[in-house]
Amino acid sequence: MGFTANAALKRVDSAHGSVPYFTLSSSGPAQRLSIEKTGALFSNAYLAAEQAKARALGGLPCRVYTQGDRGGREPARDHPLTSVCARRWNPVMTAQTGWQWLSVRRDTFGTAYVRVQWERGAPVAFWPIETSVEVSYDHGATVSPVRYRISAGDRFTSAGVYLEHEILAFPTCISTDGGVTGRSLAELGAAEIGLDIDLTRFYANIIAKGFSPAGWLEHPGVLKNDEVASIAEKNRILSGADRAGEVRIFDRGLKYHPVGQSMAEADIIKQEEYILQSVARAVYVQPNKVFDFSRATYSNIEEASIAFVTDTMTNEVTALEAEVGKLLMFMGEVDNYLKFDLRGLQRGNFKEQMDGFRVGVYAGFYSRAEIREWLELPFIEGTDELLQPTAYYTINPETGEPRPLPEGAVSRRTPAENLLAPVIEDARARIADRCGKDGDTPKTREFARTVLTPVARAFDAAGEEFDIDSEIEEAINA
Predict the structure, then answer these.
(1) pTM of the complete model beyond 0.70
(2) What are the boundaries of each domain within the chain?
(3) How far is it between the farthest Cα atoms of the chain?
(4) Of 53-62, 67-76, 333-342, which gets the smallest average pLDDT?
């Protein structure tokens, strides 16, 4: 990795003094790095990767669902857990801020703990725990055998022993104690994070020294101490970003010798790219989410965004749902469950959303009321009924003719539909052929309207209605 690789083994001063971010540990067959708590957040690569997950998680809607009167599931109205999870964790923290804190805390410390405040048998607040928690298991206890001991309280939680329903634990997926607690991803990725911090310090040093590559001065004789100090002072005056590019004159017969490795040979940009990708891999974030588009193309950028939802966020929210869901069990609501809505991360542009909604409604598995609820539009009477396509019938594969209706069945086709069925099918075939060649474009829709206009006139002459817009959508989306 060039000459900055060894820089990861240095002690990095924190913003609060000389507390090191990284310390060397001699245990084991080789030296390794360990991270000191939130020092990793001073790495731009780690900060970008953590923000990608935290911001996505904080923006997800969530609610408690219950069994509906007509089967299926529906939101549990005014549920106290929904209020805490979706609106405010507590009086000083919104739910969005709480989930974002949890995501960063878990990855950085290995496990994030949250205290649950109960009132009258229901959770009314979540409080982040900022101190260490000891987990124990009482084999002899028949009720709530898990105990959480907090030796030193923090600003939100007092010291003491807490029961299973009072503490939520969110570990990372990397564990060395059977999954009870998680390992810090910042600790495990300390080498790459240290490189990132040192590269930032390296850039700062280059700017402070006037963008001049390091080198050394040669003098044929012997310089006195005051002469050396004078030369050093002149060099210091010419340092800094404001004096970059100025010509430096070395008197007293001094000769400048540059180092053998240039900035180009150091290949700092490639090192930054490697570090960013390594840190992103460690926290399981796709490169495009940390603004690394070095391998992005027009075709794979959308796939990468989908992979972020399916491979990263789905696992994140499933773990959260399982842990928070245990509160419902303590409330006696074993059939209810908490659900994060990932559709917000899967939205396309406005046209793609509308096309998807239209297909779902016409196919009969979404109601218009459901679509309006997702779009936060008011309910309209009659929109909760599913639409049923009526222009379809089965074909006998041997004769190619429509199969006869079962005895006692009532045909939903009108007389005009029966008479004009061959014309309608021909029109749909022509529209589908044009759509297959040119795609769903304004010209294709104009062609479809031209083809179906004579059919609409025939229906009008027969005194029957013909929804030309619905026919166009059905033909194009077939």
Answers:
(1) no
(2) 1-209+262-347, 215-258, 348-387, 389-478
(3) 117
(4) 67-76
